[in-house]
Amino acid sequence: MKPLITQAESGEATARHLISAPELIFDEDAITQALTTAIAGASDASDIQAATVSILRTAQKTGRAEIARAFAASPFDARAMTSAYCFLTDQLVRTTLQIAVQHLHPARTTGTTDQLTIIGVGGYGRGEMAPFSDVDLLFLIPAKPSPRVDRIIESILYILWDLKLKVGHATRTIRDCVQLGREDFTIQTALLEHRFIAGDLGLAQDLDQTLKTELFAGTGRSFIEAKLEERAARHRKQGLRYVVEPNVKEAKGGLRDLQSLFWISKHIYSVEHAADLVERGVFLEEEFKTFVDAENFLWAVRGHLHLLSGRATEQLTFDMQVAVAEAMGYADTRGRRGVEVFMQAYFRHATQVGELTRIFLTKLEAIHIKAEPLLERIFRRRPKLRDGYTVVVGRLAIVDDNAFMADKLNLLRIFEEALRTGMLIHPDAMRLVKANLRMIDDDMRNDAEAQRIFLDLMLKHGNPERGLRRMNELGMLAAFIPEFEPIVAMMQFNMYHSYTVDEHIIQCITNLALIEKGELEEDLPVASSILKRGVNRKVLYVALLLHDIAKGRPEDHSILGAQMARKIAPRLGLNKAEVDTVEWLVRYHLLMSDMAQKRDIADPRTVRDFAKAVQTVKRLDLLCVLTVCDIRGVGPNTWNNWKAVLIRGLYRQTKRALETGLEDLNRANRGNEAKKALRIALSDWPRKDLQAETTRHYPPYWQGLHVTAHAVFARLLRDITEGEIRIDLHPDEDRDATRACFVMADHPGIFARLAGALALVGANVVDARSYTTKDGWVTDAFWIQDADGNPYDAARLPRLRNMISKTLKGEIMAREELKSRDKVKKREKVFKVPTHITFDNDGSEIYTIIEVDTRDRPGLLYDLARSLAESNVYIANAVIATYGEQVVDTFYVKDMFGLKYYTESKQKALEKRLRAAIIDGVERAQT
Questions:
Q1: pTM reported for the whole predicted model
Q2: What's residue 858's pLDDT?
């Protein structure tokens, strides 16, 4: 088999330069010999094609294994990896073309020339391929293809498809390429990175020259605008750069942003390599190094992602983050997992990509983008700029760099000026700031004017998010507050937090600013009213800025963060009293959230203990607003009406206790108020029936439920007969939950069986209360949601009612049914959630509080409740707080004699049974 196909020299040279032993990837001599032998023994074209596929498939498998081996040995050498896959693909395509031309469809007459050239376009044309990248081919012909050329192309495609290559293809003339490229910027972009693979070299050269003169020349402005709009649409679809499961290719700060940057460069400046942008003055040497480092890192991540998943996946899901981190050699360190270190590196590169793109595109806008309409420029009112600033391409720029740097406070002032004027900062000015961050020293940090400027960025202009994000992305925030640097781009490896730590903080401050503007008054009436009455805004903003400053360390971040806040707050210009309050808020920033979500706020002891910790209404106000902002800043769907009701209820009860005295928090007062409310609600009932209802319940019942639930239970209990089970299901959209009330004869294990029935129909319990009447009935109230945290759909309530009835009657055994249902999703299995079980005999007057902090899964509440029931534990209340993959199930319990669990031996015995139930469930979920 003689080589008749001309091959490209440039691509081959690049691949061989990066691959030390290309024959290990594709042994051309051995494969040629094998094909020659196979073809000699073939009886027809079908045998030739089958033999070709078989030999090339083996060669492909060998080559891919060698590339994967070399990449595993050098996990950051992305350039060699991408070139190696491209080299292997080139050889497969060239060999396939040669077989098709010489053996499958040979010319019938001597001298016949059917011109055909194979051009690689897109990423393949650029010479960069991940393990499972698409192979985009252009079959270039001089005119309408002959029947033979059609057959050659068809055979090539069938062989490549049989090799499981994902081939994108088009057959076009040079004129087709120019015409279609003018009409479609996606086609134009693909052609921008075309590369000759094999075939007629002269035809490829004609294409190259024609595209330069007829397609790319003079279309710079429209091409840039198209790419910018494409980039904006992609970012809108993918979301923020800081989303914790990013798309390596398409997300903000991903490979596509770097590629877009280079496409525009190649189109406008006719550069062949990114390094040429330095000579063109687009990038500084340091910026180009950042470009190369980010590109190499992102390609390495993408390569490992493909190899580990065995397919062309681009999403860094949680399970793949762990696998990629391990493949790249990231190890656990003190206080942090290797995957968290890896993802912090990822997000820092993504941030740098964003900065480079912004610098580059702004420069191009000045030259190529259409100016805004004249009338708009005339009538737009711009604030008058302070001395030393000017406007360039609609952005805030610096008049004289030397004069600007003569006063290092200008490094802060420019952010204030940008907020004051509402303008974006020009990239040249951003470059200047970043290049001089070393000038920010302790003298500047302790300068009163610097402190004033920094605080005004948060307090004065109504848009603190914009200023803080600009400062953070340029490194200014970490330079001014060095303690902030470790949490920049730090990922919290869990399903609860949607953002990196620094972005979470900025989101929290954004929420505070929105509340202050009155934009969330309907959703957050309590927090809005607090800010309207007035608080120390300086304290609140600084506390939010610092509340997670100690994340990622072995120590408790609240305790360590408070210690750090005591040192940082004075540097931000706060007086001693303000520093004390900031320190307290940071130390206890989780207190209100924990008390509201993990404790029974209907228990007077909960409110009393919280009030004692808070001490003053001033602190309560500050902590309430901080808590709301903190929860809302976790993610776009974290805050809901259920949390709002809990926080609001705890705040109002505590405020009342602090204003009127803690002695008002007693069971008798609550019981009398609840009975009075019930009498009003059931005013149409005979007095005798009302008397029977108000005397049949024990005191905890009256304090634990709202009058609406009391009224429902009163109706369910009225005239109930032995053996009857009564159920009331009421979707409560104001709380984002459905209230399910059950009444039946009391007997052991009722609570667990109800929890099992609810689990079987996919209902998540967020709160549950169980009370026994003096005449032997049990009244259980559960608040349930669906898997998305919404009220349990009313359309599903009949099935729920049926399942509960069957479970209570023993027709369905929840334990057996759940075995096939409580599976943990693959992407969630990588999370490590240690189990902690605590006993608290001080948090309630009459119950022991058992708190089980563990990995969440379907059926967990049922397993725990069943284990407690088998130990003769009476469950009064269960409060469930979910944090992504972590859950805290809190049980208010007493023993069969109505006593607390004081003895250590009983506590250990219960803990052992609870841990066994958790382990048993985990084993089921993983099988």
A1: 0.86
A2: 83
